[in-house]
Amino acid sequence: MAQHKIDFTKDGGLPVALTTIDNVVNWGRSNSLWALTYGLACCGIEMMASGASRYDFDRFGTIFRASPRQSELMIVAGTLTKKHAEFIKRLYDQMAEPRWVISMGSCANTGGMFNTYATVQGVDRVIPVDLYLPGCAPRPETLQYGVMMLQQRIRKEKANRSLKPKRLM
Amino acid sequence: MRAYTPKDDVQKKSYYTDRYYVAPQVPKFDVETDDVFAADLKAIKAKFKVSEAYIQVEQMVVYINPKNIHAVMTLLKDELEYNQLSECSAIDFIAARGGFEVFYQMLSMNKRKRLRIKFFIKQDEAIQSVSDVYRSADWAEREMYDMYGVIVKGHPFMKRILMPDDWEGHPLLKTYPLHGDEFAQWYEVDKIYGKEARSVIGPEIRDAARVDRYDTERFARLGHEVDFGAKFDENQAETPIKYQEDEGVFMIKKLDSSESVTITDRDR
Ligand code: SF4
User: For chain A, what percentages of helix, strand and coil (3-state, to nearest 5) are there?
Assistant: First the structure.
């Protein structure tokens, strides 16, 4: 038995926090951005470094998942070849709504230095992109910053908005 | 108007040719200068027709008849101890000679020698597969087909290896444009969204430094300041940045050279 009586009305002692649904839902969404492991080329190495212990993505709740069904963030890290384009679309479609895409590095943004017949000139030709990270390759700090920017954006969104599916067309 | 120049064979013509340029030649030596190669060549010549043979960069190059390729490779492997096929592929000579030169690069671990078997085929000619002699020829021949369109007979799995199966054209041909033909440029759009999506997604932008003046969301538009996301069309007049004196941007002043001083005393 408690030795003393708690005055719930004083000193914030009430075990209740008041907030809005939007804040709670967005707090959850933005702090559990599970990312699909999508290393396509050298940028993938930086993405792995961001996930590993030195930069430690787990602090932000970004945990890499090897399945699109369990992830809501796709970090396209690397060169998207034309042969692979249909698969990125398929994986994107398999992710559950709401979902976000970070295009990491020049290759994913614009095709980068691979100005050739075999490279898709920017992933936004295939799937809708929320955030573009410049660099070749962007350092892990850049990716961290990018993810934090995305978190801020998610927190500003309306949680109960009717989820309009993101489509390129 | 400028005269029309066909664009389908753009890499054939070089941009600039030096009139006095002499292409460097790697010197060729007689096969007799090397005893091991001389013995090898004798063994090949005993059974097959050899049109040319020489030593270049310490490697023997032997030109044979394309019909004999399988038998020659068997001979090289079983009797002459060339136990590794490092690489085989084709060289595009379609414009100059109407066909391909196919080469097989061999290595003998015991003799510590490298040897190259070569032959010339016409563009529509098929070659015999050697993948049952050397396993490494399996993928190399598939790549040869993928990149050059050389058909290989007797191959267990003749299919493209690098490009998608439904790809059109063979990218390493000299006639193939670097940025791809129309099929290549629209490949992912056509495949995923269908041809009717072309007008929505638009052509590829291959100029990495391009700034779209009329995009008011992603580019800071110096000299054309409008609100974020504002509609802006080509007919709208430019709004150049003005100096403060011309009722323009605060603090951006014109340089008055009479007021500028050159500092000579650094301890001033
Ligand atoms: S942007 Fe640079 S580092 Fe990243 S995948 Fe492309 S070439 Fe590699």
Answer: 35, 10, 50
Segment-wise mean pLDDT, segments of 10 residues, chain B, 268 residues: 68 73 89 93 94 93 94 93 93 92 94 94 93 94 94 93 93 91 92 91 81 71 70 70 82 86 80
Check if A122 contacts B (Cβ < 8 Å).
yes
CATH, domain range B28-153: 3.30.460.80
**Could you say which of B162, B178, B188 has the minimum Cβ distance to residue A126?**
B188
Q: In what order do the strands lie in the sheet with A100-104?
A: A64-65, A35-36, A73-77, A100-104, A131-133
Q: Across the interface, which of B180, B184, B188 has its CB nearest the CB of A125?
A: B188
> How does DSSP assign B96-147, residue by residue?
HHSEEEEEEEEEETTTTEEEEEEEEEETT--EE--TTT-TTHHHHHHHHHHH
What the block records as the tokens of A63 is: 């945990």
What is the rounded average pLDDT for all residues in chain B?
87
pLDDT in tens, B191-238: 999 999 999 898 888 876 777 767 777 766 666 667 777 777 767 666
Residue in A158, A59, A42, A58 with CA at minimum distance from that of residue A104: A42
How many degrees, rounded to 5, is the angle at CA A151 between CA A124 and CA A160? 90
B128-148 core/surface letters (b: 16 or more CB in 10 A; e: else): ebbbebbeebbebbbbbbbbb
Q: At what angle do helices A21-30 and A140-156 cross, to 10 degrees?
A: 160
The ipTM value here is: 0.79
Q: Over the stretch A58-89, which tens digit does the pLDDT of each residue have?
A: 999 999 999 999 999 999 999 999 999 999 99
Q: Could you list the beta-strand ranges (E) of chain B.
A: 28-29, 50-56, 59-64, 84-93, 99-108, 113-122, 127-128, 152-153
Give the tokens for residue A144: 């961290």
Ligand 1 first shell, C-beta below 6 A: A 41-43, 78-79, 105-107, 112, 136-137
Q: pLDDT tens digits for B125-145?
A: 999 999 999 999 999 999 999
Q: Note whether A125 contacts B201, CB cutoff 8 Å.
A: yes
Every domain of chain B and the residues it spans? 28-153
| Residue A107 at interface with chain B, using a CB cutoff of 8 Å | no
pLDDT for residue B18: 79
* Interface residue A93 vs chain B (CB under 8 A): no
